[in-house]
Records
---
Amino acid sequence: MQTVRLDYDDGVGLLTLNRPEQLNALDLAMKTDLAEAIAHVQADSRMRALVVTGAGRAFCAGGDVRSMPSGPDTAQQGRRRLSDHSTWIAGLIGLDRPVIAAVNGAAFGAGFSVALMADFVFAAKSARFCASFGRLGLVPDCGLHWLLPRVVGMQRAREILFTTREIGAVEAVELGIALRSADDAQVVEQAMAFAHGFTEASAMSLAMSKEILRSSWTADLATVLALEASAQGIAFSTEYHQNAAARFRAREAQPFPPQAWSGRGTSGT
């Protein structure tokens, strides 16, 4: 993989978009590398959580305009160009473990989408989120129409998508786009520390809960209750639950959640 870097740190993967001179703009090579990296994470049970960040001074500046065709696409060509290279999107959104985006600098266009593909977003003070597609007469893509309304609601999503205005770190926290903000020098460190907190959690219960949450947007209550019952039946049967229940009855300390989380707020700086 030439355009992304995947590192491992004691139970947590760190996926770095690695085209800093291009502000980590997405081109075909990066989309291919992302698909490969995400598949690797999915297959590696050692990685209990994943942090995604960008090398250099930007998270991701969006699609690489310079790599796009200089002449007009036909509608069919444009559609195929996106559709044929979108497996990485479903792969990242559907990853069966917690994903944390550490957003440094610009998260523009498709970079905004990438940030929202994560379960949690940590925004550096320099972070700027922008659905910039309309500035080039384009339509938001990489799932942004699906992702953004689920975070901020439909009316606010329209305002952000249609106006193409920029959102800083403080407002991102206020809108729920980011979980918390951090100094630039510490955003990856804080995201990694948060990710490490999941290494002692039940991988099975987290994976099933993520799946049910995704389904809950389109499923009715009866379906969600059925999904919960099935997942709970599996969870009850796991060794993790049996050991945790035994520790609870014996009034012994549990390995999850970590003590560092106690009393910590879930938003803000």
Note: The beta strands are 4-9, 12-17, 49-54, 99-103, 106-108, 120-124, 128-130, 166-168, 180-182.
---
Amino acid sequence: MKNGGRHVVYNSPMPLEDYARKRNFSATPEPQGKVEDRKSRRLIYVIQKHKATHLHYDLRLEMGGVLKSWAVPKGPSYNPADKRLAVEVEDHPLDYASFEGVIPEGNYGAGTVIVWDQGAYELADGYDADPLVAWRKGKLHVRFHGKKLLGIWVLVRTRGPNSRDWLLFKKNDGDADPAADITRQRPESVKSGKTVEQVEKSQVAP
């Protein structure tokens, strides 16, 4: 593929290969899932708050029949000045968008997961209409239609075409709010209304 006139080879396994390899589905409640074709529907996104070894937020965007995923240690910010590190991780199945629960100790990603935000998204600002094309180029302007996130955020890859390090930041649009602290103001799940701590206490790992 081409990126600014340069030939780029992005090394990645087959969709969901890494996801399945890292998990024992007889021991974790996470969905096994599969690659799905949902071309006739709006693209979905989810942000899951994940209390594992370190608390972080997992941003997942539907593209190519899977959820492309990034771990965002500090979570999203409505302040355009906040450039948040987003580390690309393995693709997840679309079923994962509704996953909320406790991943038992001894399993990859052990800890508590809540659906912190979810909704639909589209690419904005006249950039590539195909999210996979934009992902390969390393820059996505994403308009979120969520319950907590609204407006445009930018995801841009850093350190070269094969890097998994990206930055996530809010575009300075009408939805930007430098004074807002969305992760502190809205800690709860949009699915259950519970916080990470409440889910952790209410569920017994298998």
Note: Residues 2-202 form one domain.
---
Amino acid sequence: MSSTTDKSFAILLLSVTLLSAAPTPSTANSDKHISVYSPVALYSLPLLERPGSDYVGLLELLEPLGQVSTVVNGRSLKIRYNATDAEFTAGKTQARIHGHNFDLSAPFLIENSRGLIPLGSLSALLSRFLGAPVNFREAARRLFIGDVGIQPSFRLDASNPPRLLLNFTSPVTPIISQEPGGLRIVFKRDPVVSPGSQSISFDNQVITHAAYSEANGDAELEVTATQLLTACVSTDKKTITISPPVAVAVQPSTVAAHPQNPAQPSPASPASAHRILAVVDPAHGGDERGAALTDTLAEKDVTLGFARLLRHELELRGFAVQLLRDADTNLSLDQRASAANTAHSSIYITLHAVSQGSGVRVYTALLPVEGESRGIFHAWNAAQAPALPISRTVAAAIVAALQKSQFSAQALSASLRPLNNVFMPAVAVELAPGPNGIDDLTSANYQQRAASAVADAASALRDHLGAQP
């Protein structure tokens, strides 16, 4: 579990969406890949650089698209894809597919019983196997099978502040990051194509320009502005709204206690609809990758997938849930704490992951010695003090629920920000490998069981959470 440095304290509440991507197999050049988009699967393949040409694995290319089997006999590889048979020979530039000769742009290779196809042959080869139109944009390394392209359109709402609406023909799951002078929106798993023009200018003094590009298997939209921008993805994931942020200033050294009892909420409170608000915070994100769980798996990716499952489990039990990040974005520790405090949530759950040990650890705050509280204000680094007893009750309940679900679990205390900066019950849940080792950290079933146990514990304490000052 790693930490970030404190950053400035003007808070930006971002709502951006990203489908947690599964890691691709590691290679000597694992940063180079091609993206494959089809009606049945969206996936990426590592690019293999060999003398004279670039290659991808034949089995890896076909396996997500249908039933496939291979037999290697010396220098010959026979492959059956659905009802199509083919034979390739190592070192040869000609193959037999469905009884017909097929010319390759470079020699076929066999390495460790694995067949490799040159990139220049992908379109023609897949057309033979699939009987469907295939478009391979070799320069960008993006391969489209059938009519799967997602077309964006732009509409600038010249309000004050202005809003740029990006509408897409299908749901998208972008990575959105703030850049000097605007926003960068990257589509790693979505077949987003050019909006018609690679560059669009807007007659606006704040949001001035948008540009489309694609490279290394990704599509990218860059929005240029004269002010800081934030982005919000709609519930159906078909619209991204871009605008200057609304900043919420909070005094760094102190934090106001909850001004009212959530058991008697104001009309604006989330509890007014008889739903307790839970804030779920996937640790790390953006430049802050967290722990390196494997060579290709970062903690930030595990915590985001785990958070989405926990959100679903809590919602099934009647909670309203706010994810502090729903994409690969940066948030400082102070921003996370302030987002939870200003939302007037009834429970805060931050999620971490480690590669050492096993099971789940549940942490509550270990508070530093701070000065006396002043009226409704509490010292920033001891804001958790009034809620700490119920936090420990929540942690004990989560541990019991996890143990009931056959997890090894324990409750601990740690000087772990931002737990000490939030004034509602707060715990950190740290997921470690299970019986299957590190693979459990990316197992939907393993994460699902843990999320269900955490949600069960929170639901059992609903009345205590709702009664917090």
Note: The chain has three domains: 48-140, 152-249, 252-466.
---
Amino acid sequence: MQKMSKILVIGSGLSGTTLAERFANNGDSVLMIDKRAHLAGNCYDHLDLETGIRVSNYGAHLFHTNSQDVWDYVNKFAKWQSYQHKVLVKVADKLINLPINLNSINQFFNLKLTDAQEMKKFLKTKIEKIKKVENSEDYVLSVIGKELYEAIFKNYSFKQWALDPEELDASVIKRNPLRFNSDDRYFADHHQALPIDGFENLIGRMLSNKKIKLLLNTDFFKFRLENDLSKFDKIFYTGPIDQYFDYIFGHLEYRSLDFHFEKHDSEFYQSNSAINYPSLEFPFTRIIEYKYFYKPDKPINKTIISKEYPTWDGEPYYPVPRARNHEILKKYQKEAKKLEEKGIYFVGRLGTYRYLNMDQAIAEALILFKRFA
């Protein structure tokens, strides 16, 4: 007969929740703690009672994946509605498609290019030949040229990261692909959808197993002082890796966001769910309008938006990918590897200090579970 393990999971985001669900389904006893008063981590959303609009408390969360395994897994816990996300960027008096595609080139340069061949030929007149692409600035200049770089990417990146693009890894901008067709969707994944009743309920169902005990409003570092962690067979930590080690090698940098929510007495506030504002005349980076994601059950002449103001203060959202942080991270990773012998594992965006999409967080948690199943 298989011995039941005692599992401790710190953090109820997608990484921690997937591990908790899998171990509980395997017959193990799971204790999940979270410092917040709610489940779902940064995926948390709620239904605004006045308008019936579902609002994401920590910015837009949009599920997309090419992994059939991940798609099959999440479909066990929710019904999904198709949603193809699109992003516009405001440049002067124009709204331009993002990622850069055939439409974007025509919109920005007032052209009438018709196919990929014409687009490539045109961009050859704009791009700069850079022998070794070493940072975000190099990459953008080498694929679309200076004009689009300065109009769309340079100042937006500076606002988002408080760093010049030449100080950031090329991987930051590469998340925004270049397309040589008119596909104006932000993602190209095979599966793109939203759980019909939101991510809060998705997470709740994933954690509904009676073998999972939940402790909210529970800070791990206080919990660690007051409890004997050796009674757990395995511990999965999803918080900031540098905080776990009491910052012995220094602080890793994280960017945060300050969300300013507004209600407006109009059917819609803007023409799209997400509009980016790269100009420095706007202190925020983008405006999200939630009504586009989940249409209310009945028509209502109200809408809810959020303006996102990047900051160094607040919850850690985005690891900052640059050389200084890579060097510090290596030291923490070395210490984290040693702890695996004691059954302690670091997972998720903050635990591994990497930008992970939602499906990637789930996929990595599923793979990690399979190591022990």
Note: The CA atoms of residues 254 and 316 lie 5 Å apart.
